């Protein structure tokens, strides 16, 4: 399947006003960085808060990217996505606790090895769970959004109760691997090592996803399926298999996000995924349904804004994300970078 020629006008051919409007979603992040710096005033405090916001945003992006793809390609509203976050956290942290000697060893290589094994185990289990979830719960309700909401919420509740059965009802507290504790000092700011790792992982994942979707055959099929599924099927591609693959990948990404969020908080609960779904849905909606790039920008805005507001005016932090959601939708009702489906 070769790429069709792109007849859309190039950015350089557009009038200046249209170019600015088209680029504005991308410009929102640097604008927010500058406004945050001016409002905070202290460079070291700003840098600490910025890294914290970027780390939070990257972890939310990892969880949200799978959900936005599932909705964009499959038109499925999956409220059960939070269950994969929780299961991924419990599986990954179980691996960390089982390899406690490696985790507490003063060796960066061993510590990163523990995190890698935890991530791989979480993604494998949540990927398989996602396959079963799609076959048993989601498949019978394709095209029926109200039923999707009901059955996926039911699936979320069932999986949370299974977590209680397997791991118990109590919170599990733990410590991060030894070399990921503490902070490094830069420009007078204390930057937590784990947050720097989270930023790096999020950036790498975003770049890999963009390369896959824009440079590979399967990525082209997925993008084409999001925009015009009927045409893709008419060309002879089995879009149903692509559906299953995307759902499994989205579930595995939720598991990855769960492990990272658990290590970030150093405590996990059965309901953590359900709690994170509020931020995940905010990111998916403001980014534009089906858009990975939109979810990435939205997640950065949510993470940065929440950290800046919590520092400047803590009482407003609780409503900062809702205010951001409201402002974005008033500006662009379909989100910042929505995928335009063929009619």
Automatic annotation (TrEMBL):
Q: In the UniProt record, does the keyword Transmembrane occur?
A: yes
Q: By its UniProt entry, which InterPro entries does this protein fall under?
A: ABC_transp_permease, BCAA_transport_permease
Where does this protein chiefly localize? membrane
Which biological process, per GO, is one annotated for this protein?
A: amino acid transport
Q: How does it sit in the membrane?
A: Multi-pass membrane protein
Subcellular location(s): the record lists:
Cell membrane
Q: Pfam family of this protein, just one? A: BPD_transp_2
Q: Which domain of life is it from?
A: Bacteria
Query: Which parts pass through the membrane?
Result: 20-40, 46-71, 83-103, 109-133, 145-167, 194-213, 241-264, 276-304, 316-333
A GO molecular function term, named singly, is: transmembrane transporter activity
| UniProt keywords, alphabetically | Amino-acid transport, Cell membrane, Membrane, Transmembrane, Transmembrane helix, Transport
What is any one of the record's Gene Ontology cellular component terms?
Answer: plasma membrane
PANTHER family found in the cross-reference section: ABC TRANSPORTER ATP-BINDING PROTEIN, BRANCHED-CHAIN AMINO ACID TRANSPORT SYSTEM PERMEASE PROTEIN LIVH
| Family per record | Belongs to the binding-protein-dependent transport system permease family. LivHM subfamily.
Quote the protein name from its UniProt record.
Answer: Branched-chain amino acid ABC transporter permease
């Amino acid at each position: 399947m070769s790429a069709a020629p792109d007849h859309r006008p190039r950015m350089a051919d557009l009038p200046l006003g249209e170019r600015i409007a088209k680029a504005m979603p991308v410009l929102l992040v640097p604008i927010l960085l500058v406004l945050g710096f001016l409002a905070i005033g202290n460079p070291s405090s700003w840098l600490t808060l910025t890294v914290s916001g970027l780390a939070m945003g990257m972890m939310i992006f990892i969880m949200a990217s799978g959900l936005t793809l599932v909705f964009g390609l499959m038109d499925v509203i999956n409220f059960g996505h939070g269950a994969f976050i929780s299961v991924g956290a419990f599986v990954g942290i179980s691996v960390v606790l089982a390899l406690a000697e490696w985790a507490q060893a003063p060796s960066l290589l061993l510590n990163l090895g523990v995190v890698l094994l935890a991530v791989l185990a979480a993604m494998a289990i949540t990927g398989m769970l996602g396959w079963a979830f799609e076959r048993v719960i989601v498949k019978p309700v394709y095209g029926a959004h109200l039923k999707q909401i009901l059955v996926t919420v039911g699936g979320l509740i069932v999986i949370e109760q299974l977590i209680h059965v397997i791991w118990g009802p109590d919170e599990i507290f733990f410590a991060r691997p030894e070399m990921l504790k503490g902070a490094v000092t830069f420009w007078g700011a204390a930057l937590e090592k784990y947050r720097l790792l989270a930023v790096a992982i999020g950036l790498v994942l975003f770049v890999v996803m963009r390369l896959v979707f824009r440079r590979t055959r399967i990525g082209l099929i997925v993008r084409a399926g999001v925009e015009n599924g009927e045409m893709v099927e008419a060309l002879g591609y089995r879009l149903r298999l692509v559906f299953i693959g995307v759902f499994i990948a989205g579930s595995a990404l939720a598991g990855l996000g769960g492990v990272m969020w658990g290590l970030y908080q150093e405590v996990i609960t059965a309901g953590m995924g359900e709690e994170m779904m509020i931020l995940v849905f905010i990111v998916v909606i403001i980014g534009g349904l089906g858009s990975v790039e939109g979810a990435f920008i939205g997640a950065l805005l949510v993470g940065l804004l929440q950290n800046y507001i919590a520092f400047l005016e803590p009482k407003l932090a609780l409503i900062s994300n809702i205010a951001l959601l409201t402002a974005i939708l008033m500006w662009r009702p379909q989100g910042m970078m929505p995928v335009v489906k063929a009619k």
